[in-house]
Amino acid sequence: MARSRGRFISFEGLDGCGKSTQMGKLAAALQAAGLEVITTREPGGTAAGERIRGVLLDSANSMTAMCELALMFASRAQQISEVIQPGLRAGRIVLCDRFTDSSEAYQGAGRHLGPKNVLAMHQLVCGDLQPDLTILMDSDPARSVERARRRNRAARGRASDENRFEKESRAFFERVHRQYLLIARREPHRVIVVDARRSIAAVHHDIVEAVRGRLSVR
User: What is the CATH number for 72?
Assistant: First the structure.
């Protein structure tokens, strides 16, 4: 008997919105229910992807918007081949911290490349692969980015340790935020918006209910 396909859930939102925390809590809840879960992130998730991540986030590196987008999809291509598709074929639930929606928001809107260019590259690299469910963590741009900056400074101990994206202007993050909301309105069947400004427990509750309701995962 053929094994049923797994489920693919992505988490999206601005840096500092609590994505990683909530993804970890959902993974723990699903595992406690006896389900097999894979967690991964973008850029990264594979040996090659993590090296690409280092290049992308290093504030010492200067690159064009198209170079940045191409590197994001290079990491994504490897991730799909090594992690996502094998996990889905094995019937597991794959939780991914960012996917193509991040590219549409950050490079498409933030870098002014336009959604059409991003979606064309998605079709080339990812084909028809899309998350079954996307959790969009909606947060205030200024507060989220400042939270991410404080987190990185605490982790590395120097005020200069902000990644390339955290150094961007407020206008950049406002564009990213607006595009995320446009994606959610465009694809309500796939994307649910969760108010990330509330307590960790309240946000987690809503995410678990969404997963149960949309994907029939108990």
Answer: 3.40.50.300
Instruction: Note whether 76 and 42 are within 8 A (CB).
Output: yes
Q: Is residue 2 part of a domain?
A: no
Within a domain: 130: yes
Q: How many domains does the chain have?
A: 1
Name the residue range of residue 209's domain: 7-215
pLDDT the model gives residue 215: 81
Segments of the chain scoring below 50 in pLDDT: 1-2, 158-162
Q: If we measure between CA atoms, which residue out of 192, 179, 162 comes closest to residue 100?
A: 179
Q: Let me know how long the chain is.
A: 218
Paired with 20 in beta bridges are none
* DSSP conformation letters of the chain: -PPPP-EEEEEEE-TTSSHHHHHHHHHHHHHHTT--EEEEESS-SSHHHHHHHHHHH-TT----HHHHHHHHHHHHHHHIIIIIHHHHHTTPEEEEE--HHHHIIIIIIITS--HHHHHHHHHHHHTT---SEEEEEE--HHHHHHHHHHHHHHHHS-TT---TTTTS-HHHHHHHHHHHHHHHHH-TTTEEEEETTS-HHHHHHHHHHHHHHHH---
Q: Is residue 1 part of a domain?
A: no
Q: Is residue 105 part of a domain?
A: yes
- pLDDT tens per residue across span 139-157: 888 787 777 667 666 665 5
Closest alpha carbon to 193 in 205, 202, 206 = 206
